[in-house]
Design goal:
The chain has 210 residues and is an alpha+beta fold. It is built from four helices and twelve strands. 29% of the residues lie in helices and 38% in strands.
């Protein structure tokens, strides 16, 4: 009788240990499933696009262009916003591209050479939580902060702003380019005009390793 009691007690203890072991495994699995994998972000050169839009004639006809030689540097981080905040750029102005070789040469020679700007250099200054981004642009020996609007969704960053090159004392370049392109910048009203306001657009998608 005592032997039966001891056997029953032993089975009960064994069952209890087995049950506890099962519960622990389920808890461990649940913890593993709830862990968010860490991601590592970096700049993706292949996804980057930079575009400027200038305006000619009093009707503001758009002329779209960019640069073939753009160098962007940034840090890599597990924080995507830290990568964006660390971005710096350098553009070779002789590589200006408007899909028109004659126009490319005129812009490089008459605008950028006139204002002694072989490179445009800049960097991200700040990015806030309200969709505003500030970048610094160095041109014609002057460094100026410019604010614009940005979005960041699914690792894609876009930035848009308007600048006035007059802020960089570049009106001499505007006048020189407008003079050489006088006929092309003349609208139906007979007035030749090249605006100093230029729209800038930049986009890139960060690489993520999760």
């Amino acid at each position: 009788m005592k032997k039966a009691i001891f056997v029953a007690a032993g089975m009960s203890v064994l069952f209890s240990f087995s049950s506890c072991k099962g519960d622990s495994t389920e808890v461990d699995n649940a913890v593993v499933e709830n862990v968010v994998p860490a991601c590592f972000y970096s700049y993706n050169e292949g996804s980057t696009n930079f575009q400027w839009t200038a305006f000619k004639t009093t009707a503001k006809v758009a002329v779209v262009g960019g640069f073939n030689e753009i160098e962007v540097t940034s840090e890599s981080s597990d924080d995507a916003m830290a990568v964006l905040n660390s971005m710096a750029f350098k553009m070779n102005t002789a590589s200006v591209e408007t899909n028109n070789e004659e126009r490319n040469l005129k812009i490089a020679t008459n605008f950028f050479e006139t204002i002694n700007t072989s490179e445009i250099i800049g960097n991200v200054v700040s990015i806030d939580e309200n969709g505003k981004c500030v970048i610094n642009i160095n041109m014609n020996g002057m460094s100026i902060d410019v604010e614009g609007d940005y979005t960041f969704e699914n690792n894609k960053f876009t930035f848009d702003t308007m600048i006035d090159v007059a802020s960089w004392n570049a009106i001499t370049g505007i006048d020189a380019l407008n003079e050489i392109c006088k006929d092309l910048h003349t609208g139906e009203d007979g007035i030749s005009k090249l605006w100093s306001e230029v729209q800038l657009s930049f986009s890139t998608t960060l690489k993520s390793d999760c």
